[in-house]
Amino acid sequence: MLSSRPISSCEWSCRTCDYASDHQRRQLVWEEVSDHPLKPLVVTVTESRVTRRTLGGSTTSSTGSSTPTPTLESLAAALEGTDPLTQFARQEMDPLSKMAADMWEPAPTDRRKSKDSLLDDTIEPWSARKSAILSKFTTSEKLSIVTSFLSGGEKVVVKAQSSVVDKVKNRLEQLDDFEEGSVRQMLDLTQQEYMNRIEQLNQELVQAWHHDQRVKALKIAIQCSKLLVDTSVIQFYPSKFVLITDILDIFGKLVYDRLRTKAEYYVPGSKTPTSLPESFTPDMVPESAKETCRNWFYKIASIRELVPRLYVEMAILKSYSFLTSSEFSQALLRLTRMIRGIGDPLVAVYARCYLCRVGMAVTTGDRDYLKENFYDFLATYNQLFSPSVRTELNRQKVDLSTYLTLYTPALDWILQGVAANAPEKLLVEILARCKEKCNNSALLLNTIMAAFKPSYIATRALQFIELVSACDEEGFPQYLLFRTLGLCLALADPPPEHRLQVLNDVWRVVSRLSDAGQYVSCAEVWVQFAVRHFSPREVNTFLGDIIRHMSPERAYEHHYPQLQAVVEKVLFHTRDFESLFTMDKFLPLLDLFQKESIKVEVCKNIMDAFTRSNVQQEPTNDPVITNALMFICRVMHDSVNALTVDDEKRQIGNLISGFVKKVDYGRDFEQQLSFYVEARSAFPNLDSVHAQLVQSVNRLSVETRRIVKGHHTRKTAAFVRACAAYCYITIPSITSVLTRLELYLLSGQVALLNQCLGQADACFKAALSLVPELPRTIEVDGKQRSSEPYLVSYLCHFLSTLLVVPDSPEQGVLYLTRGLLKVLQHYAWEPTSNARPVVYLHVLDMLSAAAQESYPYHIEKVDSNDTLYGSDPKFISEINKMCSVLLDEILGHLKYLGTSEQLQKQALLALDLFGRVVVRGNLKEPSLAVLAMNLWNLAHRHGYIDPKLSARTVEYLKKKSMQPGGNPYADLVTKLQLKKT
């Protein structure tokens, strides 16, 4: 087991690889040299020339781009012995390493189950933060990278030599394109090029492991860690940390998986070795695997420089589980204290961040190291404002506030671990420590408010306002602190007696901000505090203050996202839209959105919130609300043009239709119709809105009939005729033929229900004239289908209505039915379709019902043809003539099907017609009996009819034959049976 005592940096630098005592120690030959073997040479590679520059090993710079990068010859020599890890490296690659080679990201770390694992549930995963860091901390400056493992490009210079022979050898080695022991410094890389190089190193590491080159993989991990010393482009450092630690995570996972694969053990009572389970204990690990594990830590202990030695050990920290279960806490505290040796505070805080992240993955119950890391940062906090730091920032032309924001990702991660499930007294302790140790604690206050439970912050809101107000503006601006405080109070409420004072104290400072960006970033957070806890009067004042700050010099044009957030939060917390629209500052706030697309999006959000909030509430007729919503809907409607996509039209149409349905004037039907008239003129370009208006007016007409119980007065009769006229006028403006057909039929039915016979006739005629315009294909479930099935269904519905429509005295007998047949005769049907004869069969059904003395259904107070004609012989004669024509048409189609060899369609149509003849016709007529017999024979000629269906048909005819006057049916059954036998 490794010693857990703190080791000084000098001791670490001089320590050699001490292998196990049972291995023979090699005798080293002492030789006097004139130069240190680890003295590095950095080759600067530019686009046009190669510059050689030897760096001294005595002094180093943590911020410059020419960071000393020692070669790894001595370490490589130590690693090329016959230790167990090298022996394993020559063996076959294990499956887990293959998995790592295929996937460049490490698998999620296995967390040990513990009763103290509550810490994990309250901490945001690091993976959720990485993308935000990479997108926020970017740079346009040129970057550099120092490595030995990227081939390609210019020739590089290898180790510095002193003798003539070595110089000649050095020249020869320059002819090689790539040599592993060389060191290359690439300058003038863009951010994307730098990230590509890091990804190449990532791939090199995994491929080296894939090819059993464990030493090379370790060297790559070491050189990647050294890149974290370089702060020459300081604003990019957080993103660099994310990229490099991803590689270290992969390295740590490869080492751990390799050790676990090799650590086979014997289950008690078994002689067969098996792999370690997920939750193994150190006593299950064989001594050979422990020896290999120690060798890894010994090799890392020999790394000369502090930062790479720390990072590589932290990367494989989980492998301590193979040695002892008590090492984690001691190792975490030891590494925490070793980080105190890093001079640059930015490098140090990110090293602490990585240590805390690794520590949370291996232990969940112990958090002492988290507090110690945070308190160590507090001890060096004033160094962030030291003259040396300011000098470096001036050199890089980075202001102090930008510099301080570089600390937030690392500091937030450390403190969230400290604050996770922490008691409230810890917040008091940390605040006291910050006040004692730090002069300008703005950065710390921001991190504390973000890390601790919002309820802790809310109960001390006034105290935090006092602390924020006392902070120096230099470095970390106050408005960010007030914004963070507002975010906390959005999640937890301060005591009721403090709320007004909290808002007044904060807004007294925020309202004096001259920078529009700083002001609106606070306003978008604090507006929800005002909406949740105060009356519309205070919210209206708040919105007015926003308008006052954003109007000068058209500042609103640069802050549309923040203003959108203001509106969304007001809508989210508003339940009383009447009070919202009565605010004299709400609609002027919408006028700040001068960009049409943004304004339309805001209006859609308003309408969506209004529709959702009123799902369970009564409809509205308040003129303030309706006028405001009408204005908002006009904004959305006017954005629709020829280039607007269908989905956008559908969305806007649905929102406006939802508004139309929510407006209800109760019994004031005339006012309701006036609103629909106004809406039709306001929204002329959306079919869905016009269709909704027609539906709403028809509903209004039916509601009128319900109230008067079908007995219209002169006034109500005029009103329902006006409703019918509205529908008849509105429907033609709709583009979709299908929608017009449906609405004409529906409006005609409603007019007929209200005894508006002339209006009903007009609607039915319009529907018939529209049938030829029906497109041949319609879209069903995203696919184009033939429209004939729809047309057949529609005409069946239409025929059921025509049965009760009385004939006009100015027109002929069944003039609407004749008009329908004329349309069908000229309609361009598909040649192979049975649609037209099927419709003719349904017309026969309707005519059969029309010939009866009393129709099966009626419309109240509407006299149908059975009452008008009373089965007059002339009327029956006209029906018979029409039936004869239809039969001729169907028989002609049957003949066509036979000649075109469509025998199955012919059989089915013949059987359908047979059913109509025997059910609707008079079989006492010899001609009909013969027709029925011929149709039966035709249907069964080629065997396409289901025998069960034939049997049921015969049974039906037998039952009919047993009824009075059933002789014709009995004769037919006899013939069918004879034919069947």
List keywords for this structure.
four-stranded mixed sheet; elongated; disordered N terminus
Give the count of helical stretches: 46
Mean pLDDT: 81
**Low-confidence residue ranges:** 1-30, 33-120, 152-162, 171-181
Q: How would the global form be characterised?
A: elongated
Q: Which class best fits the helix and strand makeup?
A: mainly alpha
- Largest pleated sheet: 4 strands, mixed
Beta-strand percentage range: under 5%
Measure the end-to-end span.
101 Å
Question: How are the strands of the biggest sheet laid out side by side?
Answer: 2-1-4-3
The rounded Rg comes to 44 Å
User: In which range does the helix fraction lie?
Assistant: 55-70%
Instruction: Count the beta strands.
Output: 8
Question: Can you tell me about this structure?
Answer:
The protein is mainly alpha-helical. It is built from 46 helices and 8 strands. The protein has a 4-stranded mixed beta sheet. Strands 5-6 form a two-stranded antiparallel sheet. It has a two-stranded antiparallel ribbon with strand order 7-8. Strand 5 (265-266) and strand 6 (273-274) form a beta hairpin. Helix 8 runs antiparallel to helix 9. The radius of gyration is 44 Å and the shape is elongated.
Give the structure's gist in a few sentences:
The chain is mostly helical. The strands form 3 sheets. It has a 4-stranded mixed sheet. Strands 5-6 form a two-stranded antiparallel ribbon.
